[in-house]
Amino acid sequence: MSKVEGGMKLSLKVGLPRALFYQTYHPLWRTFYAALGVETVVSPETNKAILDQGVKCVVDETCLPVKVFFGHAANLSAAGVDYLFVPRMVSVEKKAYICPKFMGLPDMLKASNLKLPPLIMPVINLVKATDLKSILWDCAAPFTGNWSKIKNAWQEAWQEQKRHEENLIEENLIKKTKGALDTSDTADLTILVLGHDYNLHDQYLNMGLLEKLRELGCAALTPAQTSRKERELQLKKFPRSIFWTYGRNLLGSVYSFLQYPERKGVIMLTSFGCGIDSFMGNLIIRRLVEKKIPYLNVIIDEHTGEGGLRTRIEAFVDMIQWRSDYHQNYVSAYGQYLGSTERNA
Prior knowledge:
Rossmann fold; 2 domains; four-stranded parallel sheet; globular; disordered C terminus
């Protein structure tokens, strides 16, 4: 777990790009390597320099999150880490898959012109009966061969990941309680922000979308704030199985959100060129239209401007507010009658 340089022992460092799967599983991997006594180096928050570096490394048609991932990988490589952690994410549950871009990340990095350190590339594929032991061996092989130590590190990391997910759900409950006590005009306005974790939790990519909603007095929720058990239960209402894990998370959280009694709306945050979202978005919009739930579709790429996003969000919140307060008589873009001409007494 150490190297010798100039007669001095130095701790080995593994780099974790702050992009894609990191936003979902960072408690797991950071705790795992810390328990092994390995120093983890996480790339900084996404910024223009990181994005520009990533754009140079891939073809134009690549989606924005992958461009950002390449920028973070380049940043860590320049920082001099000894290894770069890039798992080949095929599946994290039995009956669904991750985006193909996740599956091909190690190969895409190797084919790039980046000067990379050795890659740690465990294959995570739970559709097949992949042995957890073999995955953990691949993750820890450069640092230790002590299976007992690896197993204990994994158990500690898994508990930390579970605590992280439970805290997100608890945060949702606290927000709802505070909202019930708030008397402001938008206190009971709840917005479900649909999107992949790597977009929702990257402030540079989403241009502070969640924070903007909170500044407007809205309660902003994300799919991760609905429990896995609740999402799976709600998905039983859909007649078919969803092929993609992220798609399952989005649709399950929408079904759960439809039961919320408060005034509500949905914002879908999508990366330009995302094949999964182009398919899932259509399914979700159909359900929102059926229930007459207002929605806003925000598509981002490296050219998206913050000013335009703020204007759209403010208009969306105002529209929901006016619709509820004044029952304005208007016809929606999909041709359904949504109100009357009478105002509340």
